[in-house]
Amino acid sequence: MPFKFMHRTLIMVSAIMLFTQCDVIKDLMTEPTGSKSTSSGTTKPPSSREQRLNDREVQLREDIVSYAKKQLGKRYKYAGRTPKQGFDCSGFTYYVMSNFDIRLSPSSREQENEGRPVDVSNAKTGDLIFFRRSKKGAVFHVALVVSNTKEGLTVIHSTSRGVVVDNISRSSYWKPKISTARDVVSG
Questions:
Q1: Is the pLDDT of residue 34 over 70?
Q2: Contact 61, 185 (CB under 8 A)
Q3: Range with lowest mean pLDDT among 42-46, 91-95, 162-166
Q4: Which pLDDT score, from 0 to 100, does residue 37 have?
Q5: Torsion over CA of 98, 102, 103 and 109, rounded to 10 degrees?
Q6: How far apart are CA 3 and CA 111, in angstroms?
Q7: DSSP string, 94-152
Q8: Are the CB atoms for 156 and 143 separated by under 8 Å?
Q9: Distance CA 60, CA 54 (A)
Q10: Which of 43, 75, 153, 185 could form a disulfide with 35, with the two C-beta atoms 3.0–4.6 Å apart?
Q11: Domains in the chain: ranges and CATH
């Protein structure tokens, strides 16, 4: 008799654990984007205010890139900060961001310390990407993220070819020089 009782108890405990486990997995698979964990471990969707702020930021980031693309083809000019003069890399990011009341230094080395750091793999539209010739070398270039997808990291920047869009993940020149990323839009 005790064996039967233990066997039934074991089956019931196993069944409870199995069903509880499935709910946890189901919850993880259906967690809404932008949800936040609570202290109890459950998740809740963002409030309507948080969602509106997120939507506004996404729109701002897209507007920044759209505005930057209006400068495609503008010539390169060392220390240039206007479409009429032409742009160097940091003058370009300085000019674009200033149109959205985002104040940056006109130097790529200084811009690398502005905003907040983000992992390059998580860089979003509107973030800045910085380049070095070596790990310990100084920043020598900055670009504005257009997109970061499975196809690669696409940026718009002012180069010796003028203002252009490049997939730097596929570039034998730019890819090894990618160093850091900064969020100057939300940070």
A1: no
A2: yes
A3: 42-46
A4: 43
A5: -100
A6: 72
A7: HHHHHTTT----SSHHHHTTSSEEE-GGG--TT-EEEEESSTTSPEEEEEEEEEEETTE
A8: yes
A9: 10
A10: 43
A11: 55-183 (3.90.1720.10)
User: Exposed, middle or buried, 36 (CB in 10 Å: 0-12/13-18/19+)?
Assistant: exposed
Q: What is the CA radius of gyration of the chain?
A: 24
What's residue 48's pLDDT?
A: 74
pLDDT digits 0-9 by tens, 10-27:
555 444 443 333 332 233
Q: Rounded CA gap, 184 and 167, in Å?
A: 21
Report the alpha-carbon distance of residue 33 to residue 124 in Å, rounded. Answer: 16
Whole-number Cα distances in Å, 6 to 9, 19, 20, 29, 79: 5, 20, 21, 34, 80
Residue-level pLDDT at 38: 46
User: In the structure encoding, which two tokens stand for residue 139, read together?
Assistant: 């920043």
Q: At 43, give phi and psi (nearest 5°).
A: -115, 155
Q: 43 with 27: CB under 8 angstroms?
A: yes
Please tell me the distance from the alpha carbon of residue 88 to that of residue 94, in angstroms, as a whole number: 10
- What pLDDT score does 51 carry? 79
Cα separation, 45 vs 136, whole angstroms: 42
